Amino acid sequence: MPDTAELAMLRRRLEEELASLLEDADIRRAGSSTVELDQTRTGRLSRMDALQGQAMARATEARATQRAQRLQAALRRHDEGTYGECVRCGEFIAPGRLRADPAAAVCISCAESAESR
Fold first, then answer.
1. Which of 35, 36, 17, 29 is nearest to 58 (CA)?
2. Would you kindly state where each structural domain of the chain is located, as residue ranges?
3. pTM greater than the 0.90 cutoff
4. Which of 42, 58, 83, 90 is most buried, most CB within 10 Å of its CB?
């Protein structure tokens, strides 16, 4: 279990990353807006590029939304006093794992067993 100072540092990282994701949300949404199919303005390849860009922007937005949800869940666990405990087995998550990903919800053993399924 991380000590109090490390818990505070991890919480700041969670809050900062979440704030950054929320600040950039408008920019990501603009890139995923509907592609205008005005053939008088753009050629076929330009429209295809625009559609590909739109698909990539939507995928990026989906990943950002998922990450924001994980960060919010980690902050809730922090508020509840269960941050740092694996949500599956209840064991403590290694401090190094939390430093690598402060939103980690499972210990390495549970993560590896889920991947092997």
1. 29
2. 4-82
3. no
4. 83
